[in-house]
Amino acid sequence: MKKIKLEILGLSSSQSQTGSFALVLGEVSGNRRLPIIIGMFEAQAIAIEIEKIIPNRPMTHDLFKSFSNAFHFHVEEIIISDLKEGVFFAKIVCSDGLKKTEIDARPSDAIAIGLRFDATIYTYETILAEAGIVLTDQEEEEEKIETKPEKAKVKKEPSKKADDYKNLSIDKLKDLLKEALDKEDYEKAAKIRDELGKRN
Question: Could you tell me if 10 and 84 are in contact, meaning their C-beta atoms sit under 8 angstroms apart?
Fold first, then answer.
C-alpha cells in the first residue's frame, strides 16, 4: 500500500472542551488535512518538541528516546495506519540497523516520539480518503499566507459539542463544515466530519 507523507500544521485547543486538542496534519504533496483529536499531555509533548523547549526533567517521550539510544535502535518513521469507528491507530517503525520492528501506538504518542527522532510521518490513501478534509484552492492560499511553516499554530476557540450535531441535517452539517474550514477550526471540522461519516 502506497504511503502518503504528512507534516504537522498546527495544534488547536478548545476552551469549551477542557483537555481536548486537535492535531492538524497536512498532506505534503496535496491539499488534504487530517485532524486528530488528542489529549492535553500529548499535545504538550508535541508542542514542547516543536518549539525545542528543554524541560528540567525528561518527559515520558524523552525517556523513550534515551532508552532507545541506550539500546542502539532508532525510530525511522511513524505511520497513521488505521481508522476504526472514529479512532486512529499508528505504528512506530524502529530499526537497530539490521532488523525493522513495528510497534503499535496511539497517533499522539507516536508523533510525539517521532518528532524527537526527526522521523517522517505517513498515512495511507484509504485513511485520507475517509477522514481527510479537502481545502479548496482559495482556502489553501489563505492558509499559506496566515501560517508560518516553521512553527505549529496554536489556536484557542470555543467549539460545539459533538452531541449538538446529531439533530442537524446533512446540508446544514456541510455548511458548518465549510464555515469551520474557512475559520481554520479543525477541531470543529473533525467533529462535523465524524458526524457526516456516521450517516454515510
Answer: no
